[in-house]
Amino acid sequence: MSLYEKHRLLLEAAIEALHARTFYAAFPENPSPKTYGETADADGKTAFEAALGKPFAGLLQANADTWAGEETSPYTQESLNVSYPIYSTATLIDNAKSSQKSWAKASAETRAGILVESLMRMQSRFFEIAYATMHTTGQGYMMAFQASGPHAADRALEAIAAGYEELKRFPDATLWDKPMGKFNIQLNKTWRAVPKGVSLVVGCSTFPTWNTVPGMYASLMTGNPVIVKPHPKAVLPIAIVIAELQAVLKENGFAPEVCQLAADTQNHLITKELAEHQDIKLIDYTGGSVFGNYLETLHNKTIFTEKAGVNSVILDSVTDLDAVLNNLAFSVCLYSGQMCTAPQNFFVPSTGVKTPNGQVSFEEVAEKFAACLRGVTQNPKAAPFVLGAIQNPATSERIHNVNGLGSAIVLASEKLENPQFPNARTATPVILKVKATDKAVFSKELFGPIALLIETENTAQSVALAKEMALEHGAISCGAYTTDAKTQEFIMDEMAEACTPVSFNLTGGIYLNQHASFSDFHVTGGNPAGNASFTNPEYVIKRFTWVGFRQPVEAAAV
Amino acid sequence: MSLYEKHRLLLEAAIEALHARTFYAAFPENPSPKTYGETADADGKTAFEAALGKPFAGLLQANADTWAGEETSPYTQESLNVSYPIYSTATLIDNAKSSQKSWAKASAETRAGILVESLMRMQSRFFEIAYATMHTTGQGYMMAFQASGPHAADRALEAIAAGYEELKRFPDATLWDKPMGKFNIQLNKTWRAVPKGVSLVVGCSTFPTWNTVPGMYASLMTGNPVIVKPHPKAVLPIAIVIAELQAVLKENGFAPEVCQLAADTQNHLITKELAEHQDIKLIDYTGGSVFGNYLETLHNKTIFTEKAGVNSVILDSVTDLDAVLNNLAFSVCLYSGQMCTAPQNFFVPSTGVKTPNGQVSFEEVAEKFAACLRGVTQNPKAAPFVLGAIQNPATSERIHNVNGLGSAIVLASEKLENPQFPNARTATPVILKVKATDKAVFSKELFGPIALLIETENTAQSVALAKEMALEHGAISCGAYTTDAKTQEFIMDEMAEACTPVSFNLTGGIYLNQHASFSDFHVTGGNPAGNASFTNPEYVIKRFTWVGFRQPVEAAAV
């Protein structure tokens, strides 16, 4: 049985799910022993620990002269001492090009079979990937497992499904039969989906698989060889995924270099060299806006970006203010605000928030929000796992600078004790009060656990500012709370014009930071936060070109 | 019955045709009295003549202060003396924006109904449009009727169908129901396809409706108001289309300014002003590469271009050389080579072309080709209609300059007598012989009836040069003649990499210049000839953004 046949039903279910957009997941998100086996977690931890202090094992790509690695655990501050093969840009491009023709000529079925199979192999290493993710990104265990494992694999499957569907959207061949009155003109026509060329996927330090696999699998599914350039501080999780994929490629007669790991080091970063190389035709990028904006100016390349955004919460009216603020406090705490979907700007009218028990003043909302945050951060059983650690020292720096601003602080950031990892780099969220007129303060992304309570004249101004932030500085998520249907419609109309998805009235165990595969389009592509969207049709269609051939029926060459 | 219901079956048939890609046409291409009525042609001619010398009647858009027009008939050299309303860029943008919200909020069904109805109104004026096209572009009567009438309407319908399908590809609403073990999380989710914004469609002087309506209808279908900026020398045909559309918009409660005609004059061209305006979010452009390349560099806009290309014919082996050369001669003569799909570079090995009767030498192919061309141009019953007139004096100039190159001329260009229009600007095709080493001569588009016979070492070099021309300078069509299946596969592989469609072994009444709606993708978007393709999914998807909204089932606002 071919790999395509082996995975056909899954692929079909995934395509159906893309269009139903109801809940769907191919990879269980619960790291339960019942699902993954009694020893899966311990085995994964052992495998992770066994990998430390060595050259990374398992890649099948061409040998490299040099090996290097620079990862440090945000939990222990110790180097992982894992090294990866280091190549010149020219070698990476040459290797990709030498693998290009056979992958381009492979059928959509062949590619889909290999790619889905690689996700199954990845699944067998979800726990190892989870520990690798914790100790590179600082994510808590649960998020590290879910985001880098099942959620990433689901996003990869989504890209495979979307790509496969688009490749099958037009016939391979047809008879064009035009009646001309006394006779017909008949042409045999065929079409090919021609891959764009070598694809570069640039990863980030906070979500090393989740933000990398969509572009990687979208490019591979549509026939393009891929060079994955991870962040030098977060290589191991994606190296494991690539090693598994290379094994499946090789088993099926393709060069492992169809997908290469291109690690680099801080003293010789190669992203710019790669991106500007004339043979790189596709670029996927997750990271800061300055570099993303530069990439978007490169000519004769197709660019997909996910950059910084300023995410807003609009508080108008609620049925249960405590439930709302508890939900938002958790959103701010989750991975210490280091998610691209984390809320930053909380717009509250100076007249306060409407509740069934009357108006709750701005000051009271601020106090209650601080109390809710303390409720999370002072819960020793949960806090270390929810907040995780701070990936980048620069983020800690930013929080401390904000703390130093003085009088406007509602709640100061503190170090969070982590009993398991006493050296963990941690910081509880800081809440600042800001006037709507102090636009300079809230008009940029303050990456990390920083929440700004912005006092506005009324909800109309809250919406106008949230819209302006999204249009000018980008936004990937938005939360809004209103019990009034007209206000809700108004918010939808306005935020739609800023191409920002809105979660309304979330309370309980669902958070505005969470974007579900097969249902929520992640990043819309419509505002400065990025031009990519996991996974809409545009995300895969732009990776290939339809080319047609035709000839008279009687003239077929022999 | 709504307009959507009225046209629903047609729309469904068009969507089906997009995917079957067999022959399909909604608008009959034969201007026969049986189809269009006994008096249709005469009525159209009368209507055209009645429009001359007056301000153009029928537009419903806001009044303008000034009116102007600069069209001259390539057949009579006389001014049409039709004037059109002239607006400032600011007024055009303001008018578009004031019509924007209601059009964006209209359902896909409402928009599709209105747009298909407008094509029916356009159909009622096909003959008038044909005469307007003849006397602005110089096209012969039959091409003017077909290209500006039924073929353009079919391409418009194709854009409507593709846009409608994409808007319906995801649900408006769904229930997201996630099992969490002991309970489910349920979210009501909705999605909107948010239009990108004001759309600018820039027309060309040779195909004023055919090259304009795809972008115009694609933008309108996806909810964007459109400003149509025609070439100042070819306004009347598209003005008629816009007037009919504005009438349907108004009848259905929408502002006519949803689609505005934005004529300009040579002494104040407004394309650059419009294109650079921050409120223009989408640009469709047909025309020269220099301006097209400039447009493609504009930031924060979605650009669709069709620019110049260098189209090749590869001659390797044939079963009937006369049939082949007659077919190619007609391709060169059709509208005097002023089609973006017209062949220019004919690659022939120095050893000649293989035929069932042996090798026919390069020189003999050149002589036979010249004879075939004379066969078309010296047929007084056909030539004036096939060749039409030269739209632009600069094209005549180019032909004369080429004539003056001297010894390499196989066939010189001559004036073609047109008994009906003695003042017609005409030129029969010139054939030049060029060495494969004289790359400077054939590495650019020589717009007009200019054919270059390029002597190559062998077919491999012919293919390499055709591929290089396409990759470096763009190509929209390619013809290839081979009786060998391996050579054909080789040509397909190579030209696919240059994203150029190839017509193989065409003889008889079908020409490589002809791209059929609902079957042939026109321009692939994959080489420098342009980044647009009539009509693939990308052509419509990039005109809107998917934005999602969600809220807990129990939390619906009231």
TrEMBL record, chains A, B:
The keyword Signal does not apply. Keywords: NAD, Oxidoreductase. It comes from the Bacteria. Coiled coil: none annotated. Residues 91-495 form the Aldehyde dehydrogenase domain. The keyword NAD applies. This is Phenylacetic acid degradation protein paaN.
